[in-house]
Amino acid sequence: MRTARSLLVISVLLVGCGSAPASAAPGHPVEFIENRGSDTLVNLALAWAELYQQEQPEVRISVSGGGSGVGLAALINGTVDIANASRQIKPEEAEQAQAHGIRPTEFVVARDAIAVIVHPANPIGRLTLQQLSDIYSGQIKNWSEVGGEDRPIVRLSRETNSGTHVYFLETVVRLGQKDNHTLFSTDTLLLPSSEGIVSEVRQNPNAIGYDGLGYVPPDLKVIAVSRGVGEAYVLPSAATVNDRSYPIARDLYMYTAGEPTGVVTAYLEWILGQEAQQVVGKLGFVPILTGAQP
Amino acid sequence: MNGATGTPTAGGQSARPRPRRDWGEAIITRLIQLSGYSAVVFVGLIFFFLVREGLPALVDVPLRNLFGTRWYPIEGYFGVVPLLTGSLVVTVGAMAIAVPFGIGTAMFISEIAPRWAREVLKPLVELLGGLPSVVLGFLGILVLSPYLRQLLDLPTGLTALAGSLLLGGIAVPTIVSIAEDALDAVPRSYRDAALAVGATPWQTMWGVTLPAARSGVLTAVLLGMGRAVGETMAVMMVTGNAPVLAVRLASIVSPVRTMTATIAAEMGEVASGSPHYHVLFFIGMLLFVISLLVNVIASAVVFRQRSRAERVLS
Hints:
The complex is a heterodimer. By secondary structure, chain A is of the alpha/beta class. Chain A has helices at residues 2-19, 39-55, 68-76, 91-99, 129-137, 163-173, 194-203, 238-242, 262-271, 274-282, and strands at 31-37, 59-64, 82-85, 104-118, 126-128, 154-158, 189-191, 207-212, 221-222, 224-226, 249-257. Chain A has two domains: 7-111 and 252-282, Periplasmic binding protein-like II (D-Maltodextrin-Binding Protein, domain 2, 3-Layer(aba) Sandwich); 112-249, 3-Layer(aba) Sandwich (D-Maltodextrin-Binding Protein, domain 2), CATH 3.40.190. Chain A is 36% helix and 21% strand. The longest helix of chain A has 18 residues, at 2-19. In chain B, helix 5 crosses helix 7 (160-184). By secondary structure, chain B is an all-alpha fold. Chain B has helices at residues 21-54, 56-60, 63-66, 81-112, 115-129, 133-152, 160-184, 188-196, 201-212, 214-230, 233-238, 259-266, 275-313, and strands spanning 71-72, 77-78. Chains A and B meet through helix 3, strand 7 and helix 7 of A and strand 1 and helix 6 of B.
């Protein structure tokens, strides 16, 4: 599972920390950055932290996941320096922050696309957003209704506390319309991890699921999505996300409490630079600098 | 020490010398008393905490919503009925599997198996009880659910049935261990008497030993059930967690969402003090009340049985 893996990486980092101070030049005080939040971002944040610590041995960065809400809550409570979020801060969270005297500052650090995945044996290769919405809201119940085999559709989704879930609800199920109150069909399976979705799609030809582009293994079939009936069907990739032709893509954020200061500023500037954005591409996300694609 | 020391009228017991025991024993007695009461206090405090955090749900959320059939907390739908039925289906299914298997195994170990087999089997079963449920969950997700889907031709294998099978597996060791102890405690003379009047070994087991151990076996079943109701991790991994109202027979082979899985999945990111937070505690309260009821019924039944048995024997 993803969280388990990230914990492992964190502990590796911590073990590294134990021996590292010797290499830090004496007189340079060690600076700490606490970084917590979105599970979507956790692997990327870990990769950045690892690379940055190699270059700047006097900086210690600890990264953990938990979800966008967890990260932002920690930022509001003042326990982290940087919160990772796969969605923009909610108005009520901004209010809470204000009540604590904190004005969150937003940085777009990468882009992410949600890929819709099916079993490799499923003949369906493309769907419109409207069809996806109808599938997830329960109006389309059988693959034959979208031109596939006569099989029941098993809908898979992340749990409701996942940022990916909320994003998919707003962008796909509700087609991005603010006044649309369509809900997921009640028989949608809510799986607690990306790994759960991938393993079910891998072995079940009835299943349809979604996950961050960076987490889709190559052995699953990715669906090409179009905005409407007459429009082009687009497969998710770095290019199609950056030129905004793939419809289910979003920005990923880091938040700081107020304007960042000192070592945090340097870290964020580095993240937005060429070198860190190359890491973004390697992990299956989409870099924000167009020139940084691998 | 109700003044028994020194009063020669208190039967023949006044002769017993008891000068040194007072200090040490008084302290030990008090300590044991304290730990006994502390269990009660802790349970009371936990329940108080649950009520304090859970009851505001009745104020925050209209009753129609709270006892409605739709659970989708991020949009303010807090119907707990699908979760109740989900837990019920999974638990009943688990008990339907675990009770026959558990009691059967206990009878085999206690009555039929030769001594060496018994000494191997019981520790092994108890080892099974110590298996972390996450491990069983992995087996469920990778082996059991794909197999169920193909075997029963289901849309998906992540169903209440998969949860019941795993929970059954988790409850069996509890049931076997306690039921075997109960069967073992039945006096040898009962069996000898039955065999002496010409009963077959099977008749002895079924007609004499098992009824004689009835109260212990019942306790075993109820404790196994408590284990099944409260289990979270394995259930969350294999039941699909879809909050559908599980009231039809087909619900056994459909995805369901249990109360424990809901709390585990959602408590992590809920804003403290929000209606969602209070509703999750309310669900915790329901779980507490359910296990309390199970325990009360269990001890009532056991107590009734015991007093009847004592009357018969005396």
